[in-house]
Structure formats: structure tokens, C-alpha cells
Amino acid sequence: MFLNTHFPGARKYWHMGTFYDWSEATFHPMSHALHYGTCTFEGIRAYDTARGPAVFRLPEHIDRFLHSASVIKMTSPYSKGEILESVRLVMRENGLKSAYIRPLLFYSYGNLGLVPKACPVELLIGAWEWGAYLGEKAAEGVSALIVPHRRVHHSQLDMRAKLGGIYVQSTISGLEARAQGYDEAIFLNLEGRVAEGPGENIFVVKGGSVKTNGIEESVLEGITRTSLLQIAADRGFRTEIEPITKEELFGADEAFFTGTAVEITSIVRVADGSNPKSGKMERSIGDGKPGKVFLELKAAFKDIVTGKVPKYEKWLTYVR
Description:
320 residues; D-amino Acid Aminotransferase, Chain A, domain 1; D-amino Acid Aminotransferase, Chain A, domain 2; 2 domains; 8-stranded antiparallel β-sheet; 8-stranded mixed β-sheet; 7 helices; 16 strands; 24% helix
């Protein structure tokens, strides 16, 4: 029996065109993805609006999902349109008003050699209610630890792809940060500059300019990141896509994480643990509280995803 204790609101999941009770298992333990992480996924959010639930930037998420599949040499058993409609169907079947949605393409049961030559590709979609990713206290800002392990480099992998096996690095560093009393981790890249969080992009604000880094800095070009760049520019802020040094992060007026799960969350304290031999040096970001620019962008983002700003309604796919 699989309980939905940590998946509130989840009643059923969709697997290859059929709905199953959340507590029902359908996979063989020798499925390839379980052993080697040979899968790709998306994290997508739906929000409650005056017109009912709406999924934020669903076509863009599915585009990236299918690109990721191509990177791991998968042929999806479903088209973009079919996946998009299946996501809407999962929302309706579970009766969710707002949700975190997880589509997963994976190499299933066939063989267990490293090359999944006998393993069919299968599609799974689940959805549940998920509030603040970094906990309710995230509203006051979070602390982050710069971990010693460097982010996977863009010369090693197509950083536009979300591949399951790569995220074990995120899990390890996220656990390491929490074990040392911090809310989240931050990776440097091989060049020693700021890359990203385990599942988040990073923005810094200095003198009213809003800055994040690009794919050449070994980061995922997140969909929330791209959206925030446009929202900030539309509100008159100067935006930059440039490398971020540790010194720029420490000296920023404000800093924040962005991502589907984390949404927009202020970073108020950072510890540099990138060199374990020299100990950790902690710094407050700005005055140690969520800043003015962050609060403005967060409020704007909330209005947009809940359908209150007609200009951005093109970003919403209504469930019903």
C-alpha cells in the first residue's frame, strides 16, 4: 500500500493512457530507469484562477520535455498535443484546483545492460497539491550553502535537458546543505563562478539591475527564470544575462531562487563552503530580509499565474 501522505490531493496517476489508484503499483523492479536513472521529467505548476485551474506555460514545458527525451535517445510514445491534453485530464481526474504536475518518460522493463536496447519508453503523469518547496518559513527568506562539489559542466551534457540520473548530484548536495543547517545548496561551476541551486536558478539584484546567468555557466535555462526576465523587463528593470561571481552574490542588494517548485524565493544568507579546508564564511545578502525588487516581482508573478493580468494570459492553459 502506497499512501499519499506526502502527496496531498493525489487520487490517481496516469500511465500509458490508463488511470490507476495512487496506491497501486504498476512497474517491475528491474525497470531500467530505476537502476540507472534513464528517464526525463518536468515539474509543472497549475494555479487556481477565476476561470478554474490553469497550467503555467504548459506548451513550453512539454517542448523541453520532448527535447530532454531526444537527448537520452528516447522516442516518446505520445505527441506533444497528446501529452498536453493528458496533463489537463490528470488535473480533472484528481479534482485539483492548484497542483504540482510531474510527467515522466522512462526506459521501462526489458534488459539491464547500460544500453536499454530492449526497454520500451513509457509515459507517466502524476499531480498533487504542493505548497512552498522550501517550507513555510521561506516567506521570510532562506539560507544557502555553497557546496564544494561543482555543477555538472555544459561541456559534458546538454544543459537544456532535465535528465533523472543527473539529479542525484542535486539530491546529495541538498542533503549536505540541510545536514549543516541550511535551507538549500548552491553550486559553483567548474570555472568557480555561481551556477545554480539543486533545482533552481539564481538571480542577483544590484542597484536596481536584475541579473541571472546563462547556459554557458552550466545552468538549466528554467522556464520560471525566462518568465521572470520578461516580467522584470516589462516592469522597467534593467535585466542582464551574465556570469555571476561569488563576490557579486555576497555583495548583492538582493538575491533569489526561481524555479517551478520553489517559484520565487528570497535568499537572505549565504555560507561559502566551497573549500572545506578553509571553513565556512557566512554573509547576509543586503539587509538580511527579502528586498524591494524581489517583493515586487513575486507579487507580479503571483498575479500573472492566477490569471489577473490579461497581458500574460497567453502563458496559461486552462484545465477546463
